[in-house]
Amino acid sequence: xxxxxxxxxxxxxxxxxxxxPRWRPYVDGCWAWSPLGWLWQSNEPFGWxxxxxxxxxxxxxxxxxxxxxxxxxxxxxxxxxxxxYIGWAPLPPDSGPCTGVYRDCDSYYNLxxxxxxxxxxxxxxxxxxxxxxxxxxxxxxxxQSSVNVTQTTHCEDRHRPHVFMHH
Length: 167
Description:
mainly beta; 167 residues; 4-stranded antiparallel β-sheet; 3-stranded antiparallel β-sheet; 3 helices; 40% strand
């Protein structure tokens, strides 16, 4: 479903072979509640691994690439919400071990309006968000009227040392 290549500063990364123009991660699927928080359920055949282990980075030369990791999370995203919209942005890889991701992640990871996908709360129950995303031309105004609500923490379970959860 894609190709592997060596990316300076990241090591071996994977990019999907996708025919959709302007493809980005965390769009073809939906959110489902789980005991560990909002879980991304992908409709893509490679989604079972790339949305739960490792993180995504958008590189000018390659587009979106997945950087593998060993820590599991329901999804590696930052969250924002406003009165009418909910949004999420793929988190780039950390330079060291992850201890958690919190509301300051927008500035920490340099996430701005273009990093996010926003949908109306009414669209949250759809099985895929591909046709429900707000136009990217609205991202700046939605971003400015929203707040970051990210809180991803390490599970306090010694039997699952590489598992994270959303609060």
